[in-house]
Amino acid sequence: MALRSTNFKRSRAKTNICDICWGDEDECLCHKSAAERQAHVESFHAPTAVSDRTSKKTRGGVSSKGSAGVDVAEEPDDVGAIRCITHDRDSANVTWSNFIRTSKYTPLTFLPLNLWYQFHLFANIYFLAAAALQCIPSISDSGGQPLLLLPLIFVLAVAAMRDLAEDIQRHKSDNRENGRKVTRVLQRPDEHGSYTEEVTWADLGLGDIVKVKRGEGFPADLVMLSSEDESGMAYVETMNLDGETNLKPKMCNVDIMNDINDEKDASSFIAALTYERPNTNLYKFDGEMTTKGRSYPLTVDQFLLRGSTLQTTAYIYGIVVYCGDQTRIFRNSADTGTGRDKLTKLMATYNHHVITLFVLQALICIVSAVVNAVYTTTNDDWYLDVNASDSVDGGEVFLDALKVVGTLLLQFTYFVPISLLVTLEIVKFFQAKFINEDKNMVSGGKPFHSRRLGATANSSTLGEELGSVTHIFSDKTGTLTQNLMLFTSACAIGTGGSDSPLLVRKSQQQGEATDQARSLRPDSTERDHHVGSDFDIELFKKIAKSSSGVVRQRFVDFLICLAVCHSVLIKADDEDDEEAAEGTPPETGRVHSDKLYDASSPDELALVAGARELGMEFAERPTLNSVRVNLRTDFAKELMGLDVNYLDFELLDVIEFDNDRKRMSVLVKEKLPATTTVSPDRRHVQDRVAAKPLGQKVRESCPHPRTLLLIKGADSSMLDVAVPLSDHEDTELSETLATLAANGLRTLVYGARDLTDDLDFVKEWREAYSAARGKIGDEKKNAMHECMTRMESRVDLLGSTGIEDKLQDQVPEVIKELHSAGIKLWVLTGDKIETAINIGYTGLAGGGVLGG
């Protein structure tokens, strides 16, 4: 599949960043003379009050009217230099431009630069030198006329026209990018009383507060200040950055969000931001924001990258922290200079052959000249007009030898075919056109629609590199698979094992999958990406109802964990209706009922779909720190032991998933409704504690609100933090996971830690975790790791789930074609080893493609 993505390329090599001003170290004065350096530093640190912002100039010649200021707060010799931005234009003293330029040439530089880059090719130098030799009458084979210049000029002209055509497209792309519109918040209302203005992306500067609406791209790297969503969350699409189609959740600080309710609040917002220097890390951001005398930590959760797009949320307010070539996407751009600094493999081979031929030609000419000199000086044949009795003049012999070398060099010039250069340039140009127009190189599936994307050749010089590909490294989820997640298995510890009926999906029991097994609305249109469930709900209910004691409590906490431990958002249904009306499918999986769910991962949507089918429906996030779950069936009410319609959970803290821990956990507190009617079984069991093997204890059927750590993750990571199971339960869990993996399912293990009796520990831990998030750099990383380790321990395992992600259509056939072309496919996946192996053999290795 070919995906079109925005790929910014630097118009020049990446510059070194000045520790003081963050500008180009080669252009600034920071590392020059002491006097210039001192004047430069003072210009940054001097407390100036600028009333007329229009007099300020920005780099790149873009007006900085309305831009916020930048105050460099660190000492100039600090190697870990950090920047402090004050959103206060009256105290601003430095601005940077958000103008970008990816084109190679300007009208003035095109001719000299293009010739300079073309003469990096040795063949062009070779023919230029040959043309120069033709100007010497004594050795010329063209009467002193440089006739080789004609074909050389033609070759250079063809290459120049190709470069010009490509660069014109880059200029157009730059103009489109720089000219895109965004809403910027003004410091004071304009003559019409408006607190916002529409400006181009190029007009933005550091510290500007912008309002980005749903479907719009972020014009620079931003820190999110406020969101339209009451929970303070927003989802962004980062496909242009990392190729992933899953949406990424972002969350603003709730205290800062409360200060910015509208454009007027945003215009009066003043804060100092201290954060890290520009770098290439897309998944890390550390900083601190100080406003109204309080400091708040800044993390990647608030960091919005240029190149990504806002989704699901009507709008957000953000402040510009990196702009122009300091943004992450530019720092990660391939350092290819202008595209001529690095030769392709084919051209490099051609260059080496030309050099080899030249060396061989020179050796032949030198040997021939030596032989000629010896022959003419030792023979007195009359036709040589040499008198053997005359003395031999060494200088004259040497000059004659040089003439012979020059003459033979011209005669042997055609060792290097100059027409090959023209042929290569023309072939590369038309190859790029064929790639752009190839109807078979498209993504989006067989049915053609407007969102189908084709391959794009951004540079005609790279087409020949496709022929040198020997390995393809591919992600599995969303690339080889459909992101069509089916919740196929849910099993609590005590009811599993290799022969458990809960491990058999419903469609296998019935012989075919049913549409009712999917969580789709009957009146909804068919989607490219959706999720659902395919497991026997009635069997699960039957086994859960018949359970007792510890196993029953596991079922209770298991369902709570499914419904609460996630980052799913609920959006208004009209967003989906708009997409359906436009005939464009959503970019992420969605569970359809009377609510519309959005998440960064289809796995979470499938888990929410499964919990909903079992009666535990994730209903809403009433506030940023709370979750509501509807008990939509009698089974759910009976299992919870409560005669209520919903349960509220206070979200005390969230420990996000990361690739090192491979798990996610949430710290919650039950909030039972005031009108709770407790079932007789639960009313008469006051804090009954059931003894478990190895000293484990679990609160069963307690009517009092509990404080729980709910956690889910990969089996290997969960076993590291879990209370050891009994031998029988450990064997059962291992067999369950092995069976799910053998069926090619994605597995997760769930656990809970009851902290109701450890509230002092919870309070102390929350304070330590909040302080850790406020740190910067390695200190923050170490402190947070210590806090996570303390909380994620002594976890009681609850059960496991299995989710299926089907392969894309024709994936085995495509892999077979790649194999026949001698290309090996390596699939990168986060699944457990057994799952990855079984998927490889059952789904990808048809016909022995991956056998071996």
TrEMBL record:
Mg(2+) binds at D475, T477. It is found in: Membrane. Pfam families: PhoLip_ATPase_N. SUPFAM superfamilies: Calcium ATPase, transduction domain A (SSF81653), Calcium ATPase, transmembrane domain M (SSF81665), HAD-like (SSF56784), Metal cation-transporting ATPase, ATP-binding domain N (SSF81660). GO terms for biological process: phospholipid translocation. Signal peptide: none annotated. The chain crosses the membrane at residues 121-140, 146-165, 354-375, 408-430. GO terms for cellular component: plasma membrane. Its EC number is 7.6.2.1. Residues 506-517 have a biased composition (Polar residues). Residues 518-529 have a biased composition (Basic and acidic residues). The active site is at D475. Its main location: membrane. It comes from the Eukaryota. Its cofactor is Mg(2+). Residues 97-141 form the P-type ATPase N-terminal domain. Keywords: ATP-binding, Ion transport, Magnesium, Membrane, Metal-binding, Nucleotide-binding, Sodium, Sodium transport, Translocase, Transmembrane, Transmembrane helix, Transport. Residues 50-71, 505-529 are annotated as: Disordered. Belongs to the cation transport ATPase (P-type) (TC 3.A.3) family. Type IV subfamily. This is Phospholipid-transporting ATPase. It comes from Perkinsus olseni (Perkinsus atlanticus).
